[in-house]
Design a protein that fits this description.
The protein is of the alpha+beta class. About 25% of the residues lie in helices and about 20% in strands. It has 11 helices and 24 strands. The strands form 8 sheets. Strands 3, 4, 9, 10, 11, 12 and 24 form a 7-stranded mixed beta sheet that branches. Strands 16-17-15-19 form a 4-stranded antiparallel beta sheet, with helices on one face. A 3-stranded antiparallel beta sheet has the order 18-14-20, with helices on one face. The structure holds flavin-adenine dinucleotide. Flavin-adenine dinucleotide (FAD) binds next to helix 3, strand 10, strand 20 and helix 10. Flavin-adenine dinucleotide binds next to helix 3, strand 10, strand 20 and helix 10.
C-alpha cells in the first residue's frame, strides 16, 4: 500500500517516464509509510472510467493457433547501456558502466536486486582464491571486493572474510547494499519488469552482416514497454535477451534446488553423544541462523512446468527435513525461517561465444590478449583462469554482451563459471566494455580491448 505525504504529481514525476522507473533517491519515505495500514482510508482514483479500448489481446484462431496482433509498444526509456537482470553480474555491470559516465538502465523481473544471492538465498561465496607460487591470491577485486568490504562494515553483513576463506553474506544486507550502490551510481531502475523480447535494428551490421540488438521489451503490469539502448548487457542468467535476439547458444540442465534458512540454532542443546542431524546447512552471518543448500534434479530450468513441479516438491522436502532435524533430541527449537522466494536454477542457456572456456585451458593457465578478469578455484587450490572478453560475446549478434553464469564455457567449466567471483568479475568487465563501446561509438565486438582493460584496472579489477 502506497501512502505518502508526497503529492501524486511528485510521485508520478519520481517514476521517471511513466511506469515503474524509480529514481530511487527521489522517493522519500515518510513516517506514515512506515506505519501500518489505516482503516477506512480512501484510495486514490483518477476519477476516469476506463473503457477497455487499450486492450489488444491475442486471438485463438479457428485452426487452433494463438495469434498475437502486431502492436506498437510504448517506449519508456532510451539509454546508453541497458542491463537486463540485476543479479550479482548485472549489478556489477550496471555500476561499472555508470561509473564511466554513461546513462545506465537496469531492468529486473523481481522487486529487489541480487538475483540468486538474495532471492535465491545462496549465501556462500565460493572460489575467489587461487594458488599462485604457493600463495593464496584473491582474484576478485574491483566492484566485487568493494561489495564485500561494504558488507563487512554492516552489522551481520558477511562472515569469514579472513585470508584464504570463502565468505558467506547475508541476503538482506546484500539487498540493502545494492540499493545503496545502485542509487549512488544514479542508475535508472525498472523493477517488476520482465524482459520478454529483444528489440533489433531494422538492418544488419554492415561489417559483419549480423543482426544488431537495440534494446528490450519488458512485460509490466501496465503492459509491454520498450527500452531502447545503444548497448545491451544480458545478465538474466538464463540468457533471455540473447535467446530472443537469436544468438547461437546451448541449452544446459543442471541441479535445480531450493535453498532455505533455519533458525534457533543457538538454542540447540543436544545430549552428549547425539549424532549431528542431516540438513543443518552452514552458518550465516545472522547468529543462530543457517542457510541450507540443495542440489535437486538436472532438468530444464527454463520450462515453467519443471519449475512449478520442483517448487512444490522442494517445499515439501524442506518441511520434512526440518521436521527430521526437530525430532533429534536437543534440536526441538529449530524452525524453518524461510524457503527462498526464487528457485535455484544453476545453469540453463549458455552463449556460444567468440571464445569458449575449457577446463583443460583453465587448468593449463591459458592466457588471452583480451583477458578482462580472472576466475578462482572453489578451495583456492589451483591457479587462476583468465576470462577472455570473447567468452562474453555471442558469435552471431551485435551489441549484446553477456556475463555471469551464461558466458561461453564447456559443461565441465560450469562449476567454475557460475560462482559469485566469476559473476562479479565478468559483470564488471561487461559493464566497462559496454560503456567504452558507447563512448567510442563502436559495436561491442570492435571495442578497443586495451581501453577496456585500462578502465577495468582504474576501477581496481584484477586482470592477473
Ligand atoms: C542452489 C544453488 C546453490 C549455489 N551455491 C553456490 C555457492 O555455494 N557459491 C557460489 O559462489 N555460487 C553458488 N551458486 C551459483 C550462484 O548463485 C549463481 O550462479 C549466481 O548467482 C549467478 O549470478 P548471475 O548474476 O549470473 O545470475 P542470477 O543470480 O541468476 O541473477 C539473474 C537476475 O536476472 C533476473 N532475471 C532473470 N530473467 C529475467 C528477465 N527475463 N527479465 C528481467 N530480469 C530477469 C533474475 O531475477 C535475477 O535477479 C549456487 C546456485 C544455486 C542455484
Amino acid at each position: 500500500m502506497f501512502q505518502s505525504d508526497v503529492s501524486r504529481r511528485e510521485w508520478i514525476k519520481s517514476l521517471g517516464l511513466g511506469v515503474g522507473a524509480a529514481a530511487l533517491t527521489s522517493v522519500g519515505l515518510t513516517n506514515r509509510e512506515a506505519q501500518a495500514d489505516f482503516v477506512h482510508k480512501e484510495d486514490k482514483t483518477t476519477g476516469k472510467l476506463l473503457d477497455g479500448s487499450q486492450a489488444n489481446p491475442s486471438t485463438l484462431q479457428a485452426d487452433g493457433v494463438v495469434a498475437r496482433p502486431a502492436v506498437s509498444i510504448p517506449k519508456i526509456s532510451e539509454t546508453d547501456v541497458l542491463v537486463v537482470g540485476a543479479g550479482p553480474a548485472g549489478c556489477c555491470a550496471a555500476i561499472a558502466a555508470a561509473r564511466l559516465g554513461v546513462k545506465v538502465t537496469l531492468v529486473e523481473r523481481y522487486g529487489h536486486f541480487g538475483g540468486l544471492a538474495t532471492g535465491g538465498l545462496v549465501l556462500h561465496i565460493l572460489g575467489h582464491w587461487t594458488k599462485q607460487n604457493g600463495e593464496k591470491v584473491q582474484v576478485v577485486q574491483g566492484i566485487g571486493e568493494e561489495m564485500m568490504q561494504r558488507l563487512e562494515a554492516m552489522p551481520y553483513g558477511i562472515i569469514n572474510r579472513e585470508h584464504g576463506k570463502n565468505p558467506t553474506l547475508d541476503a538482506e544486507a546484500y539487498k540493502y547494499l545494492l540499493v545503496e550502490m545502485i542509487t549512488e551510481a544514479n542508475i535508472e531502475v525498472f523493477l517488476h519488469s520482465w524482459c520478454c523480447d529483444a528489440i533489433m535494428a531494422d538492418s544488419p551490421d554492415p561489417k559483419t552482416g549480423n543482426p544488431i540488438v537495440r534494446g528490450a521489451i519488458v512485460q509490466t503490469k501496465s503492459g509491454p514497454q520498450a527500452i531502447v539502448a545503444k548497448q545491451v548487457v544480458d545478465t538474466t542468467g538464463d540468457g533471455d535477451v540473447f535467446f530472443a535476439a537469436g544468438a547461437i547458444h546451448t541449452q544446459r540442465e543442471y541441479d535445480i534446488g531450493l535453498v532455505s534458512r533455519i533458525g534457533n540454532l543457538d538454542r540447540v542443546n543436544p545430549p552428549e553423544g547425539t549424532k549431528r542431524p542431516r540438513h543443518l546447512g552452514d552458518a550465516s552471518p545472522v547468529p543462530g541462523v543457517n542457510w541450507v543448500n540443495m542440489a535437486g534434479p538436472s532438468l530444464d530450468g527454463c520450462d515453467p512446468r519443471v519449475l512449478s513441479e520442483l517448487e512444490l516438491k522442494h517445499r515439501k522436502q524442506i518441511w520434512k527435513q526440518v521436521e527430521e532435524v526437530r525430532s533429534t533430541p536437543g534440536y526441538e527449537n529449530v524452525y524453518l525461517m524461510e524457503t527462498a522466494p526464487q528457485i535455484g536454477v544453476r545453469i540453463t542457456r549458455v552463449i556460444e561465444g567468440v571464445e569458449t572456456l575449457t577446463l583443460e585451458n583453465a587448468k593449463a593457465g591459458k592466457t588471452y590478449d583480451d583477458c578482462v578478469g580472472v576466475g578462482g578455484a572453489w578451495g583456492g587450490d589451483h591457479i587462476g583462469w583468465q576470462i577472455p572478453y570473447g567468452s562474453l560475446l555471442p558469435k552471431n549478434v551485435e551489441n549484446i554482451i553477456t556475463a555471469g553464469r551464461s558466458i561461453s564455457a564447456e559443461p565441465l567449466m560450469s562449476d567454475l563459471v557460475r560462482v559469485y567471483p566469476n559473476c562479479w568479475a565478468s559483470g564488471h568487465s561487461a559493464g566497462v566494455a559496454a560503456a567504452v563501446a558507447v563512448k567510442s561509438d563502436v559495436t561491442a565486438r570492435s571495442v578497443d580491448i586495451p581501453e577496456v582493460r585500462k578502465n577495468l584496472l582504474a576501477q581496481k579489477a584484477y586482470l592477473g
